[in-house]
Amino acid sequence: MSAMVEIDNAMKTYEGGFEALKGVTLSIREGEILALLGPNGAGKTTLISCICGISQPSGGAIRVGGHDVVSDYREARSLVGLVPQEVNLEPFEKVWNTVRFSRGLFGKPRDDAHIEALLKRLSLWDKRDNQIKELSGGMKRRVLIAKALAHDPRVLFLDEPTAGVDVELRRDMWRIVEDMRADGVTIILTTHYIEEAEAIADRIGVISKGELLLVEEKSALMARMGRKELRIELQAPLDAIPESLSDYDLALADEGRALVYSYDTAAERTGIARLIAALAEKGIVLRDVSTRQSSLEEIFVGLVHDGEDAA
Asked: Which domains does the chain possess?
């Protein structure tokens, strides 16, 4: 699969010397969904701004569809749609004109049928003659999405798109994202809702303090870094873990009524069989057993924490 967005050692230093991006290198494939995760101030929005031409990188190179975002700005920008964090719309303009004007900005021919279909898809058709100031916050967010899609972009950036929006809009947005991916559109998502990234992304990138800590297939990342927990409900509570079980990564839970055993999913042997046999030898009776896989959120927090410690 060919690369749609190529980022080569991108740097961004602001006046005063603050380094927002410290040599980010990343290749984003055509038709994939990449979730870019990172704490506040990590550099996510700065990176998106540089790719979209809102801000120029201080060093390195960025290409969209093979077009350099600085030297071939118009061609690169015409391929990109951006749904920003902030709602910044002309309050007295009508919804229809707002979306149609965005298409014209990119030199696209007038296509009222396309705009109509877009507004209907986003439940905005009955609001087409309303002024922006008459809309709710969720409806304004829908207008931002319509603006981003008006010129048929091949790359769509969603910068914290579901922050503060209702459940219905969130559901509609992910349906549109899936439809666009089916059409081969490349989608880059930043979000604080890590469960969303876990649900829809193909790959996960983690950025912290302007540096890309990793980019990996979601399933491979969770298999490599995830851990599982075996929760053992006990027939009778324990006051403490027996000394003979000290070799196992065990913890007491629920006031001694359960044991939690942590193990590496990638290990050749989990040690579960030996643990169960050891419990039986000690006369500890099991009532129930269940397992839990580490979530992407736990992996993300661990990565960022390790990165901060290394710094």
From this structure: 3-79+153-222 (3.40.50.300), 227-293 (3.30.70)
